[in-house]
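RNA polymerase sigma factor SigJ
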Amino acid sequence: MASFATRENPAAPFEAARRRLWNIAYRMLGSAAEADDVVQETYLRWQKAGRSQITHPEAWLVRTCTRIAIDALRAAKRARTDYIGPWLPEPVASPEAGIELADTLSMAFLLMLERLSPAERAALLLRDVFDYDYPRIADILGRREPACRQLVARARKSARAEGQRFDADTDAGERLLGEFLLAIKTGELEPLEALLSRDAEIWADGGGKVLAAMNVVCGQNRVARFLAGLWRKNWVRGSIEQTKINGLPGLALIDGGHVYAVLSLSTDTDGQIARILVMRNPDKLTAYNAP
């Protein structure tokens, strides 16, 4: 039976679960805007539900939100096949709504999740990020426990195949960004190459809206040359400031007071830069240019 507090304020269970729902939806979709839509749709269904028959509101809300997110991700994956250039998750500047489990909010982690099917992604997040047991995961996904275990096992295997890339903690990340900026500003390749791993990559997401590399640039020397060219042709004209990208240190590229790109780094086991992610798509930078 619903509690007196729930009868008096039907939205109370939803508001109590809102942060958890957003955390799930954002990690599922890699888009803050799409996560907001999923959470809103969950609320609309909550309003229409026979709440007097719902004995565990949070369980109902998580199950509903996750299933909506799975459907939304399937549609998004179809749409992303026509995406122009590399697709990157939408970064959030100050993730108050995403503070929960912040170590799984990074751009590198979200990009790794793109390797997974929607069901694998949901199962891995529910088990390894949100620490739900398999009976609960089975209920959320509407599958048998053995099937959920298989989904998690496949997702973990696929994640391992992505390779070892790490997000530096705040202090180490800020030091690395400082070294990175100094190396770029020298205009020479050697200081840059010294910071990069041999198989370093740079991904740039312009979404067809602005100029950006259409393919991933790979290799220590090629990445260094690409970065040196960006500095000479574009970055030198504006300013570069340290910022937060999904709670971790990153760089904001600014021209005329407008953030036109943000950049995050991940490292290998030796602390060298393994991957550089550059977000240029203006549709995914609204959090950095909010009035």
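thats it. The first helix runs from residue 4 to 8. The first strand starts at residue 196 and ends at 205. bye
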